[in-house]
């Protein structure tokens, strides 16, 4: 278009005919102004967003730092509690104070700190807002919440009843000192249970093994069902009087009976050990408590697994009952096998390697293999408590013989320290949990009924079983022993750990609160009355643990040798039954040579056609030694040929430990050749020190009336 054409078109049409870029020229200042303002607004909005994001990051960092500080304070609180407990224990031991055990002290200090944290620290966070998810029919373990385009992850902590929504804990410090129950099971319980098996005195344990098994298995089952049925009656009474605000089923009562049947007489046993109380009484109580914990946890798992068919899931169903029994047997046997196999593997590794040249590595491997037993059993669906208990017994019987001198001392001391710290930590936490736990359900009727049910269940557990056991025992369980066992049925760490593991429902919360109060009472009252009870029941103290108790009150004790007339003599085999004598012979001739450096060479015990295998499995140390290594605590079986040694060091010698004992000997005709296992057992029982030249010897000892 030419310039002249614009004049001919007129002003309006000429304007429309101009090129667009020329038409925009007058609008450039306006457009530029608006663009600059828009850019400025955008940049200011971006800067504000960046400032807001920076502030959020700074606040998040401060929250993380505060959380880290609170974590440190909570752990420091427990360390200071343990430190204070140790110092007070030293003071009590120095002053010979026995009315309060160290576990009772730990609970008292925990109570004091719990009161301070509950009423002395202010709330540090506001009330949380509740969100409704009515479309969902179940709770999720992990929840992602979209808040203004940002996703936040939340984890499930448990169910809160509608009446307690406004009383949710708002004190972050109290939340920090409330530990995950799995911490107790996976970290604190393994060293306690393993130490019980690793430090087991096999001599007195196996001599009373029949009674211990009866008390631990049959007695725990009897106690569980008696307590469960009595508590079900208490629950019915609570429902009638209107003190039951939620569901409480019969299976819940049985579960409570199972967890509260787990005895933990740590206070009584510590006083027994300090006073050197009667060794058989100590063995009965200790053995029952060790196996009783294992039985209680498997029994509680079986009750939880009870699932009847049909609509009523809490009615009795024979099929479901026998299924639960099968689960009990399967879990217990599987856990036992897993613990024993782990101990055998550790024994083989320590035998066929040169780890003993490096004690630090040897101790570390021993520690990890022992602890992994618990976790392996739990991961496979078994019970870690049973597995780690029998792993400890197996490690003490086999692996301990393969360790170097340094590793033997280190492993004993390591697990002893871990046991002491873990146990006192749990009791400190018990005192703390009375004020920091937020789901307590206090019911006076249920608590009083629980105390009565426990007393009756313990009585039905001890007295009838003792009566039937005495029918087959040479050395009877006296009434004073029975009363002391009845009195010593304390509840402790295992009952607490089982109760706190599940506190989701109303019934479980009431059980936890009641269990906590029962533990307090038994540790403080019963534990404090142990020493006066020993005196009142006339139970011997100051007893040498290697000395056997007198089996009767006769003035003279006749102990037969292995002459031809020994079968009709007065024997004091106690509970060394033929089954355990066979086991000892098999263990000494085959298992010990395979798994350790002790015992006779396999070339002399295995058949000739196994010669190559025997030479491969037999340790060179066996050939180097003139005689097999002495086995720790191997004198737990008394064979018929070893009955002359029932009194050990105190009676074989003419001037023994009890100065009034004298001996006269008369030779009897006849001898029989002993196997190598019997000779080693005889030497382990003390024959190597007395140099008795004749086996067919009748030893007659006049005993004091007060012996």
UniProtKB/TrEMBL annotation:
Annotated membrane topology: Multi-pass membrane protein
Signal peptide: 1-33
Ranges of biased composition (kind: Polar residues): 651-667
Protein name in the entry: Sodium/hydrogen exchanger
Pfam families on file: Na_H_Exchanger
UniProt keyword annotation of Transport present: yes
Phylogenetic placement of the source organism: Eukaryota, Metazoa, Chordata, Craniata, Vertebrata
Residue stretches making up the Cation/H+ exchanger transmembrane domain: 85-536
Residue ranges of the region described as Disordered: 47-66, 550-572, 651-696
UniProt main location, coarse: membrane
One annotated Gene Ontology cellular component of this protein: recycling endosome membrane
Biased composition (Basic and acidic residues): 669-686
GO molecular function, one term: sodium:proton antiporter activity
